[in-house]
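Researcher: Please predict.
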Amino acid sequence: MLTTTALLLLALSVPAGAQLPAASSASPQATVTRADLALAYLVFDRAWTERPPAADRVGPISQQFDQSTLAFFAGRNAESVRGIHAITAGLLDATVVPGTSTPFTVRATVEPHVYRRTLGGPVTLRLVPLYRTADSAASTGTLFGVRVLSDAGRVLASATVRVPSDAPLGAPIDVPLPTAAANPPKGRYRVVVSVARTGEAEPPAPAATVMPSSEWFVTDDDLDSKREELARRATPLDTIVPPELFDAIASFKARVRLLTTRPSQANTTQWRTNPVTLAPALELELQQLMSGADPYANRSGSLWRVLRTASRLIPLRTHVPVAVARGKAAAPLLIAIHGVGGDENMFPDALGAGRLIELADQHGIVVAIPNGDQFTTPEDFDRLIEQMSLQAPIDKQRIWVVGHSRGAGQALALARARANQIAGVVAIAGLGRMTADVPMPPVLAVLGELDPIAAPVRLMPLAEQAKAGGVNVEARVLPQLGHTTVVSAALPDAVRWLLPRTLPPSAPARR
């Protein structure tokens, strides 16, 4: 899997508070993909985490980001991406005039996405204009510099590409990359973009400012054929292995479907998967299953798999700290549920640049992050506990749930339905009515002062009423933070608050 540590975060700037230029008449849905949205958010999140703004800018930036979030909720994806890009640029550099072109305004890819050295053939750099800025309307357009870099930072290929002022949004501009086709080493490469010159300025000037746009993979294998072969070889597993391996088999088959040379930009997991390293990993997993072993049991690190229920397969990210995988002691389990528009990759890769995973490693906590769009019932929770108990030693006296936004409501609903199994709940940027007549584990609610969606003025009275009615609830408001920026700030204290929470003797965990 691609990790966010691979993302470069130097970008040109639009200062905080700047107005975005008028939207283009081109269809936003035809131009901006889910992959564009995901990358825009990942780069913002890394910038916010690694280059935190000055105290007087935290509030305005939080509010700007929430406005972009509201545009996403309204289906205006292009507007949302433009807004996130402007905020990120302002976080990283405040020297560029508002409305000028930045590396964010184009998507750069290398085609084919997975290049087979054994087949050879042309390699093409493709730039797709996503939206226009004021200076991109200049007669000569914008000149972008693009480099293809190895993980070690070596430049494999480079090009400068002019995007004309009248280039249709969403229409690709292709440039041959002969250097990249000359038998490049196998592995993963990053495609990064910089602005060389805009308008009439000539010649192009070197630019240190770059934007991660995509990845490119080089292999000797036919990965599509490998996917079909693995699926065929896995067909007999259901009849030759014991039932306790059925969860692992379902995950293996789902992981096999990620292996493709043409990932969907609508599928975040497939888009961000490294197929070059996935193929040999799947081969080893299949060998273990054929021998009757669970390839995911006591496996340390982060893993994408699925939760097998009676009716569907729910995408799931898990993380087991090395110390837990190597030891024998049971560890607490933290279930994290994302908000609307996110997926199972949100908590482990973003929301503080994967801060939850860092905290899990620090404190020895097993983490499970299901896709919240599909993880919806108490029975899903029961199945998750069963499956995670096969993957790692779980202390069932210390099962905790954290949720953000809509995920906060789902976390609280689970707590009501499984109060005898959940030892503590943290609801971030979301809260509902709670009464003492329905058993609940202890609840910590964390709200952002400037959140327009889960506004403290509306939700704090709910917490106060619940506490006055006998519910064990504590509520905190973090100053100058909004609906999304509150999450990374809330997580360290949330984990510290959860650590001592355990089921009381009167409510033993189900074994």
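Model: Residues 55-73 form the longest helix (19 residues).
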